[in-house]
Amino acid sequence: RGYTAEIKLQVLRSTAKDRGIDFETYTGDGSAAGSRCFITITRTGVYWSGEAGIEALAEELDNHSAMHTYRLAVREDGVVQVYRDGELLGFRRVPNGVDPLFKPRGSYLQWGEGAGGSEAEALVAEVAYDLGGPFGQSDPGNEHAKP
Q1: SS (H, E, C) the chain
Q2: Over the stretch 93-134, which tens digit does the pLDDT of each residue have?
Q3: Which residues of 56-74 are buried (b: 16+ CB within 10 A; e: fewer)?
Q4: Average pLDDT, integer, range 50-73
């Protein structure tokens, strides 16, 4: 059925261009066959980490002067929709894999300062998930939207 995960935060500091506060989900049994969704949020951008490496979803944003909500809406067909404050930033295919540093035994949701030589700080107001499906738009009447 898919799922939704979101984090509401304000990035106070990020020193690397494409690494900031990481927000990541993994569904599976801890093996590389599981599915990993991973975004990183800097003061001015949102980036996707996938099979091709780190790539920009949106740049020239103001993620540092106020709180914003970032959402991963993972569809059953293996595509994730990434949102900021209910606005779609892009789609990506969810790659198979697992965080090699975390070594999970099962599904997880994690967030925090990214690796790769970055230093970042943030205020985190909320972290939430919904296993009922991929919630898309911010409009409550448009639950589980699939553009």
Answers
A1: CCEEEEEEEEEEEECCCCCCEEEEEEECCCCCCCEEEEEEECCCEEEEEECCEEEEEEECCCCCCCCEEEEEEECCCCEEEEEECCEEEEEEECCECCCCCCCCCCCEEEEEECCCCCCEEEEEEEEEEECCCCCCCCCHHHCCCCC
A2: 999 988 877 788 899 999 998 776 678 999 999 999 999 889
A3: ebbeebebbeeebbbbbbb
A4: 95
- In angstroms, the first-to-last Cα distance of the chain is 16
> Which residues are within 8 A (CB) of 25 and not within 5 positions of it... i.e. 6 or more apart?
3, 5, 36, 37, 38, 72, 74, 107, 108, 109, 110, 129
Euclidean distance between CA atoms 41 and 115, whole angstroms = 12
